[in-house]
Amino acid sequence: MKVALVVPHVENIGFNELCIPFGLLSIASYIHREIPDVQIKIFDGMIDSEVTDKLFKFQPSIVGVTATTAIINDAYKLGDMLRACRPDILTVLGGVHASALPNEAIKHFDVVVIGEGEKAFLQIYRTCHLIKKGVIINGESVSDLNELPPLNYSLL
């Protein structure tokens, strides 16, 4: 099963060119450590044509998206497009905005994660065939950062 993790494009801000998506990189590294044969790829700063060209060619079973409030509209647009074009893909939204307004976010994604995503996304991956759409999951905190693996920058 393939997993795509996405930071939506930020129009005219340059956010993606300046910042590494550490949250998604941490989730990807954690999942890769727990399930070494998983095919996981991070897509950073994707615009609509890149979604079609790169994301769909990768053919993921799960697409996880992160967004702050500044880019939430782009995330919602991406979630709506994925649900309309590829309802077979499980869409997941996490990040600060989703944690603050999960009932708003669930209108655009199949699953919303509140809080930290590493353990929650692993649970979603392992049980994706059982998950009902429209689910809000509370992410389990990682109290000891030594539980997390080193970031695997090769996934970028």
Which structural traits does this protein have?
21% strand, 7 helices, 39% helix, globular, alpha/beta, 156 residues
SSE order and pairing:
Blueprint: E1 2-8, H1 15-18, H2 22-34, E2 39-46, H3 48-58, E3 62-66, H4 72-85, E4 90-94, H5 96-100, H6 102-105, E5 111-114, H7 118-127, E6 135-138
Parallel strand pairs: 1-2, 1-3, 3-4, 4-5, 5-6
Helix pairs in contact: 2-7
Commentary on this structure:
- The protein is α/β, with parallel strands linked by helices and 156 residues long.
- It has 7 helices and 6 strands; from the N terminus they run E-H-H-E-H-E-H-E-H-H-E-H-E.
- It has helices spanning 15-18, 22-34, 48-58, 72-85, 96-100, 102-105, 118-127, and strands spanning 2-8, 39-46, 62-66, 90-94, 111-114, 135-138.
- The chain is globular.
- A 6-stranded parallel β-sheet has the order 2-1-3-4-5-6, sandwiched between helices.
- The protein is 39% helix and 21% strand.
- The mean pLDDT is 88.
- The relative contact order is 0.20.
- The longest helix is centred in the middle third of the chain and has 14 residues, at 72-85.
Percent of residues in helices: 25-40%
Q: Name the average pLDDT.
A: 88
Main beta-sheet strand count, sense and barrel state = 6 strands, parallel
What amount of the residues lies in strands? 15-25%
CA-to-CA gap between the ends?
A: 18 Å
Structural class: alpha/beta
Strand order in the sheet with the most strands = 2-1-3-4-5-6
Q: What's the shape? A: globular
Helix run count: 7
Rg, Å, rounded: 14 Å
